[in-house]
Amino acid sequence: MARDLTPAALGILETLVGFDTTSRGSNLELIGWVEAYLDRHGVPHRRVPNAEGDKSNLLATIGPAEPGGVVLSGHTDVVPVDGQPWSTDPWTLTEKGGRLYGRGTCDMKAFLALALAAVPDLVAAGPKKPVHLAFSYDEEIGCLGAPAMIEVIRRELPKPAVVVVGEPTDMEAVNGHKGIATFRVTVTGREAHSSQTHQGVSAIMEAVKLMSFLGDLAQRLDREADPASPFTPKGATLTIGLVGGGTAHNIIARECGFTFDLRCPPGFEVEDVLAPFYAEARALDAALKARAPEAGVVVEKKTDVPPFAPEPGGAAEAFARRLTGDNGPPRVVAFAAEAGQFQRGGFSTVICGPGSIAQAHQPDEFLEMSQLERGAAFMRRLAEWAAEA
């Protein structure tokens, strides 16, 4: 009987949590540790770095250079802990009451730990089909790292049959997610004393007009949501997440900026949804420039992650269900992930990983030990599949 991978995964998870891989920093220390681990087991690997060289994806292959293998995909970065009331050290794995606490335990270093724990067994089994590890950077700030890595897989590897993206789904198969596009809007006005409103242009007061327009658009999207949609919330959603501007209460603000995101189910086009907003921004830009040549509105798209659409008869979903024993109904999630990028690259894809999204990004983020055990069983069955394929 194959060994239980849970203890090995637990030890690796403790190490991975100890690396502060918040997206604003580098992930190279973690990548270096994984490379050394793979070297000890004779597994070839390569980096796919960012342009600056301070972050990198990592690709590794266990088994032959044959088509039809499986990609285990996960991101190495985590969200910040700043300002969150943690009751444990977020960078130290802490076990209490059957739960594993630490930043990234749920989202999503446990899946990485499970994949790495399976490496010795995969190597020893002499797999007939390859298992590829695909670890990315900067997923949490817009899935920025994965596209370059996916292009390397598409161009240079024998085509895998299945991609498993290990985001937290309670080890249940998920076959769809919304896309996400993020935008930064900068409104520039003209500074003046706040008593001299005829001389200045308040960027904040003008930005409020655009934010109000987006609020109305968000309400319309909610009203027009398809009641048959499998998503929760059912339709496209729009939220303003960051706002900043101004210098003092008695200075007419020269600049105001805000960031919003739009999350669309498959079938929506971001540009079509935002066409009325773009028209409003252009009109305001012209009106501001008429009052002050230096004033205006700039709208920048910062990220655009495609949605992940259910695949009729999808090979990846069937594969995940076979290994997990999942016989439940089809499932989709509202959060965005790299699954849509893999699907756009031409790969049959499923999301299936340990933990619940309800614990992700929270203070005292945790993973139930039972979820690590279910993930370990998945990896054990994966090793058996690879050996028999």
Brief digest:
The protein is an alpha+beta fold and 389 residues long. It has helices spanning 6-17, 28-40, 105-117, 119-125, 146-156, 203-223, 270-291, 315-324, 339-344, 369-388; strands at residues 45-49, 56-62, 70-75, 94-96, 99-101, 131-136, 162-165, 179-188, 192-193, 237-245, 251-252, 255-264, 296-305, 349-351, 366-368.
Question: In words, what does this structure look like?
Answer:
Helix 1 crosses helix 3 (105-117), helix 3 (105-117) runs parallel beside helix 10 (369-388) and helix 6 (203-223) runs antiparallel to helix 7 (270-291). 35% of the residues lie in helices and 21% in strands. The protein folds into 2 domains: 6-176 and 308-388, Aminopeptidase (3-Layer(aba) Sandwich), CATH 3.40.630; 179-305, Alpha-Beta Plaits (2-Layer Sandwich), CATH 3.30.70.360. With 389 residues, the protein is α+β, with helices and mostly antiparallel strands. The chain has a 6-stranded mixed β-sheet.
Amount of helix = 25-40%
Class by helix and strand content?
alpha+beta
Spatial order of strands in the largest sheet: 1-2-6-3-7-14
Structural domains: how many:
2
Average pLDDT figure? 97
Secondary structure: elements and pairs:
Layout: H1 6-17, H2 28-40, E1 45-49, E2 56-62, E3 70-75, E4 94-96, E5 99-101, H3 105-117, H4 119-125, E6 131-136, H5 146-156, E7 162-165, E8 179-188, E9 192-193, H6 203-223, E10 237-245, E11 251-252, E12 255-264, H7 270-291, E13 296-305, H8 315-324, H9 339-344, E14 349-351, E15 366-368, H10 369-388
